[in-house]
Design a protein that fits this description.
Length: 167
């Protein structure tokens, strides 16, 4: 299989997205850097499902990414750590994602008091589609790079993402 730096770059960007500093505005204030509803105008982003309301934005994508990257189902506390949110926010994300049919809860085989969270086939389809679009965007941005520049950029961005401090 041929090495594709776009995959490493997309993964590093996703990792950084989970580690950005908290916004300087309060939780009740609504702010979006793109103005009126973000880059999709006043409507929902293209991966939103109108039948289930707002998709949930970057935090839900990080949750799905974390579940894809995990070798097994994750606990809510493991999801909180991977997504970069506190435990109550992770619990809400899991609950909403369960209601949307993107994830399922299952008993923890090692501790009956806990549950583990795994992707459903619908969640796998959604994240696969999103990852494909993200990878295509990265490839498009890399068109003017030489092969050596792509490999160097992937290596350096991955190193940078791994060193980025967590909140």
């Amino acid at each position: 299989m041929t090495f594709d730096p776009a995959d490493d770059i997309a993964a590093a960007l996703a990792k950084l997205r989970g580690r950005r500093p908290r916004p300087p505005f309060g939780p009740d204030e609504h702010h979006h850097p793109h103005g009126h509803g973000g880059p999709w105008g006043r409507g929902a982003p293209p991966w939103g499902d109108p039948a289930h309301g707002r998709f949930g934005g970057p935090a839900r994508l990080r949750l799905l990414d974390a579940l894809v990257a995990a070798s097994d189902a994750l606990s809510v506390s493991e999801i909180a750590e991977a997504v970069g949110v506190d435990q109550p926010r992770a619990s809400r994300l899991v609950q909403q994602s369960t209601q949307m049919g993107l994830v399922a809860r299952e008993p923890d085989p090692d501790d009956a008091r806990r549950t583990r969270v795994r992707l459903t086939p619908e969640g796998e389809r959604l994240i696969s589609s999103f990852r494909g679009r993200r990878r295509d965007a990265v490839r498009s941005a890399l068109e003017s790079f030489t092969e050596a520049e792509r490999a160097d950029f992937a290596r350096l961005l991955t190193k940078f993402a791994e060193a980025w401090p967590r909140d």
